[in-house]
Specification:
- Keywords: Signal.
- This is Stalk domain-containing protein.
- InterPro entries: Cu_amine_oxidase-like_N, Mao_N_sf.
- Pfam families: Cu_amine_oxidN1.
- By secondary structure, the chain is mainly beta.
- It folds into 3 domains: about 60 residues, no CATH class; about 120 residues, Immunoglobulin-like, CATH 2.60.40; about 90 residues, Immunoglobulin-like.
- Helices cover about 10% and strands about 45% of the residues.
- It contains 3 helices and 23 strands.
- It has a 5-stranded antiparallel β-sheet with strand order 1-7-6-3-2. Strands 10-11-12-15 form a 4-stranded antiparallel β-sheet, with no helix packed on it.
- It is globular and about 75 Å long.
- The chain starts with 6 loop residues before the first strand and ends with a strand.
Length: about 300
Amino acid sequence: MKKFFLGLVCGIVLTATTAAYASDTIQAYLFPAKFVINGETKNPSDSGYQTLNYDGHAYVPIRYIAENMGSKVAYDEVSQTITVDNGFNVIDINNREISAGHLAVTKEGNHSVINGKLYIGYFAWNHKYIDGYQSMTKYSNPEIDVTKTDVKGNLLFWDNEGELMERVPYEVKNASLGEEQILALQTSSQTDVSEYAVVTLESKQPTPTQVFGGLGPNYIDAENKVNFAVQDIVKTGDYSIVRGGLYSVKSNEVSDEAPITITFLDASGKSIGEAKTTLAATKTAQLQFAVLVGKGDFTNYKSITVKVGN
C-alpha cells in the first residue's frame, strides 16, 4: 500500500486553529505545529505532513513521528493493522529502506540458527520496473501471480575486530511485490556466528537503490597502490558501517586477498578507529561500493590513511 497519512491522538488541548477541513462526520483544522524530538526541532510541513486539531486534540502524523524517533511503520491492508517498531537496527547501507531486527541467533552444533524480522519500505522497490513487469506478465503469462515475489539477501556477521565471520543467505517466499511490509525471517549459518559483534544487511531483492551523492576526498596508500574515498558512514551501536569507493591503482601489485586497512583520524590526526577489507570482498558481494565495518564512531572523521598489507 502506498504512503498514506496516519494520525495518532496525543491528548494535547489546542486553542489556535487555522484552515478548516470538513467531512460528513467531523470537522478538523490544520494546526501549524512544530515538534522537538530528542532535542531537535522538526517541522512536519517540510516533509509534506500536516498536524490536525480535532475536538481539542492534536492528530499527529504517526509515520513522521515514528521515523524521526528511529522506528519503522508498516500497514497491513488485509488485517487493517498499523505496526510501529523500533527494533529494526540491522541496516543495509546500500538500501536504507530495508532493515532487519529482533534477531535471535542460537548455536546448534557447529552452526547457528537465526530468527528475526525483515522490514521493507515502500521506496525500497523499483516501482517503474515493477509496473512494467506486471503489465507485460499479465498478458504473456497470466498464470503468474505478479503481486508476489521472493525476497533475498545476506546477513553479514562481523566480529569485534571488524572481520567478516560469515555472509549468511536468507530468502523469504511470497512477499508482496512493491509493498511496505514486515516479514518473518529464518535462516542458518554454516559456522557458529552466535558470538558476533555486529550484523549488517545486504539485500539482493529488492535490489540496492541508486546511490545519490558523490564520493568524499580520495586517499591513497604510501606506495600508490590502492585508493579509497568515503561515500557514506552510518553509526550502529559501538560500530560504524562505511561505504566507499575502493580501487586498485596498480592491480598487478595488489592481490585480491591482500589486507587493506582504512584508518579514520580526528582533527588532531589521532586514530578514532579502523576498518579492514580486501579487493575480493567487494567483488564477492558484487556491489558498486566497498562496505566495511569498524569499531568506533567514524561519522565525524577529518582524514583517512590507507595501508596495504599487514
